[in-house]
Amino acid sequence: MKKIRAIIADDEKALRDHLRTKLAALWPDLDVLGEAGDGEEALRIIREKRPDVAFLDIRMPVRSGLDVARDAAGPSLFVFVTAFDKYAIEAFENAAIDYLLKPVTDDRLKTTIKRLKERLDSPSSFPDVAAALEKLAGIRQAPDRLQWIKARHKGGVRLIPVGDILYFRAADKYTVVRTRDAEYLISTPIKELEDGLDPARFWRMHRSAIVNAKAVHAVGPGTAGTLTVTFRDIEDRLSVSRAYANLFKQM
Amino acid sequence: MTDNLIPIDYSKFARRNISRSLLINLLINTLIAVILVAIGFGRGFVVSLIYSQCIGMSIFCANLAAIPLFKLATRPLHQIIVIVAAVIIGAGVGSFLGTVANGFDPILFFREFPPFFGQVVLLGLLFGSLISYIFISVGKISDEKTRRLEAEKNALEAELKLLQSQIEPHFLFNTLTNVISLTDSAPGKARAMLEAFTAFLRASFLTARDRTVPLHRELEVVKNYLDVLTLRIGDRLHYRIEVPDDLREFPVPPLLIQPLVENAVKHGLEPSKAGGTVLVRAVREQDRVRITVADSGRGINEKGGGQGIGLENIRKRLQLAYGDRGRLTIEDNMPAGVLVTIEMPL
């Protein structure tokens, strides 16, 4: 009988040893031909050795187990191993992808082994990992949105969570970033910021200003038919130009 | 800006309590008429009662009519102007109505009795101010109550999140798996890990229950946490905790620093192949204490998420405990990684 070839990837050696010992006891025909301590190494070994089965820890340095599976694009069957990952487990269940929860128990491992054997006998039954991973990636993170703004401050680089920002305002060549207790200058233009920010949270209010909708205290009448925005925690007032007034009128 | 200058959500209050306010208004008007008669002012109870009801009700109506304007007035000063205008208009209209209702010819009456008319207007303003004052103060009380409830809700939420986030499931299950896997191959190491983990659990449970804990106890949690991790991932993690002796007993909100260390490990060191160092340091400055958590890990990507929620929770708790004097800042650490600073008043 042909030996099944496998690799194990986990950043903690004790956990790799543990799985390897268990597999040796429950699946004697399995030949573990490599171990990896991070995602990069795992990817390299998979590409090089093209194993039948790859046991991949999800949270690994450099590349996650999910990324490894997506990028490997080989003929391997993937078994994801995780301590706790609600979204991933849901996605795996839905797509019939094999996974193991840490600590791995004998019973659960036996079930997985049985399933792997069945699948290896009829390669057409391989689950569509790529599609499931793509779906999962969609759930996990919003499209490339800015989460932090980096600004020079007192000789260092301050990281400001975008949720803390009340508004952005253009000033000459710079953009003023206003938080509750400070003002920072950054060189990213308003237009570019607008593209990176979540439009549901950050509203353009003027050619030269973007406001955090959550920070707005009130919208009132301003001069010459414009609207004026006031804030909860600071005294600043900004005006909304007519072109952008519609969103604010609903507040 | 003082507290009583915060715009009051007067409209909501007025609408909700309109029938009650109407009743109170009727009673006050009657009371005023009684007082006027008692001090011998005016021309008898009936005349005074008709006047007081007319003026009081007119002001009440003017106040109600002013509600839409109130919504537009975003500044306290504008709100005061709206009230004063409503009172003056109400008093004027009420005086006129009262005169007519009493069967006096208003034109003749006002011409012949200017002093009396003046008194009526004066009374109207007095009334108006009284009624409006009651309106506003009740409104403000409910407004303050809302604020207080809001603050309490925030505190509870923060506490709940704190309890939920106390032990990260990944950390829990990965550690247990390690212990299980080591029981056969390296029982000594398994025991050491279990001991460190137990110490971590005990320290964090003890810590989470109090409003504030001495700094050294919070750092005990941090140390136990890092000890478990060091046993697990070995050489990839190094740490140092530096606290001057005179800050050991400094009270801090519980589990404020541990999540920062967890972030440093999770987002900075774990994703990096080479790992790195976590340095926790407390420093006393003139009027405050500064606690820094620095790591030499991967650093923060502007589009990388993940840490935001935990940090928001910490910031909220800092603000609850110290107001504007509690601060949290995040910076790029030199030459690599992230530097998080907490500042608290002494």
Mind explaining what this structure looks like?
The complex is a heterodimer of chains A (251) and B (346). Chain A is built from 8 helices and 15 strands. Chain A has helices spanning 13-26, 39-49, 65-72, 86-95, 106-121, 129-140, 190-196, 245-249; strands at 4-9, 30-36, 53-57, 77-82, 98-101, 148-153, 156-161, 165-171, 174-179, 183-186, 202-206, 209-212, 216-221, 227-231, 237-240. In chain A, the strands form 4 sheets. A 5-stranded parallel sheet of chain A has the order 2-1-3-4-5, with helices on both faces. Chain A has a 5-stranded antiparallel sheet with strand order 10-9-8-12-11. Chain A has a 3-stranded antiparallel sheet with strand order 13-14-15. In chain A, helix 2 (39-49) runs parallel beside helix 3 (65-72) and helix 4 (86-95) packs antiparallel against helix 6. The longest helix of chain A is centred in the middle third of the chain and has 16 residues, at 106-121. Chain B has 346 residues and is of the alpha+beta class. Chain B folds into 2 domains: 3-149, no CATH class; 166-345, Histidine kinase-like ATPase, C-terminal domain (Heat Shock Protein 90), CATH 3.30.565. Chain B has helices at residues 10-16, 18-38, 45-65, 67-72, 76-101, 106-112, 114-165, 169-185, 187-208, 215-233, 258-269, 308-322, and strands at residues 213-214, 237-242, 251-252, 276-284, 288-295, 327-332, 338-345. In chain B, strands 2-4-5-7-6 form a 5-stranded mixed sheet, covered by helices on one side. In chain B, strands 1-3 form a two-stranded antiparallel sheet. In chain B, helix 2 packs antiparallel against helix 3 and helix 3 packs across helix 7 (114-165). Mean pLDDT of chain B is 80; it is low at 1-14. At the A-B interface, helix 1, strand 6, strand 7 and strand 13 of A face helix 8, helix 12 and strand 6 of B. Strand 7 (156-161) of chain A pairs antiparallel with strand 6 (327-332) of chain B, so a sheet runs across the interface.
